Amino acid sequence: MSKGGLPGMGLKLGPEVLRSTDGVWYSATGADGGTLGVLRFEPARVQAAGGVERLVERTVAARGGLLPGTLPVLDLVQDDGHIWLITPVVPEAGPAARTVALLLGSAPVTIPGGLAATGHGIQEPAKKDLKDGLPSRIIRGFVGLVLVGAVLGAAAFAAVRLRDKKTTTPVQISSISVHNYAPVRPSGICDTSVDMVAELTTNGGTGVVDYEWDIPAKNHTTQAVTGAETVSGKSPEVHLAWQLKLTGSGTVTATFRITNPGVLASGAETQSAGDLKYQCP
Asked: What CATH number has the domain spanning 5-164?
């Protein structure tokens, strides 16, 4: 990682918060000003646990709920010879140790229905070719998981393969609604982080949504926070951790905009906005 941050991720590295034989945890500041947790794995521990490929597979499993007990995972990144895990929170010692133990462990991943898969029974999502000299992205944010590979029992394996061969319906988004995830008081958001949510109404299909959050910045300017996420289901959500530092009173607005219009249904609006009223000292 370059000194002070990981430019390809828009992260500014903060102070060290935890250290163990498995790696070092840091706090970090995201592009939107929110605080994140970042773990730099000890390379020797990754190799001893089966290598980068196995770590990727188990991280994919954790993102899909197949490895209960881990912290939420935002990304896994390779940069400057190191593997970095990015989480939406700076962890305490207990959850941090449990997460690393599960990601570097060898216990089978449990598939819903009581089946088990080996580490190599999970397919890594297709890597996005950045072609811009940024650090190599190992995992991008996604919702859907495709399970293939070795599971216990030939019949169970055949069933998984049959499900994989079903045609995927492309997502079509008919509407967008933006709001904060939990109710807040105008006096309670002066110096805090709120969870803004863009709730999408779709046809139940699956696809990648490219998006941009526009939020107020200093000197009456606007900051754009861009991203991409694979969505599926009738009502998927896209979240933004919005760090606020407010004085006086008024209204702040977060606008969510879809930037790949091919995922929009005919006549659908490309954007929606959510307001937060504030009353601060």
From this structure: 3.30.200.20
